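Exercise: predict the fold of this chain.
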Amino acid sequence: MSHKKFKKKRYRQNVAAVILSPKYPEECKFFIGLCKDIKNRWQFPQGGINGFETPREALLRELEEEIGCSNVEILGEFPEWITYDFPKIKTTKRYPFDGQTQKYFLVRLKNYSDINLDAFEVPEFEDFEFVSYDEVFKKVTYFKRKVYRRVIDYFIKEGFI
């Protein structure tokens, strides 16, 4: 009988933003961005939590870095951290982590014109769209769909959307 030694997985603390368009609640559309580093990968803005930042502080910083603005109204916060393993895909990013544990926030963008994907020296997204609930799940990368549905459905059930 062999005893395999299991390596404890390491997860990066991360925040993610479900962004509603400025036209919400008259129109319910969600921001998705097209990643620069991975072909045809659409996703919500997200990023790591640095040092002693709170998740809300990290959210606002990441929005500045990824979409060029943090001019948002925070509408809700998913109550749990969601953990997932990175898929085996090629990317220019290499982390010493096996996956991420994420805190999701629901925000409403205040002005379309505030978005500037080139605001940061290394842009995260090359394009973006505001899409319907159904379109989110047709366009976003496959391994994020289940989590996105869980988070958005929670916000709907709780009356945030």
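Check your answer against the key: The domain at 11-157 is CATH 3.90.79.10 (Nucleoside Triphosphate Pyrophosphohydrolase).
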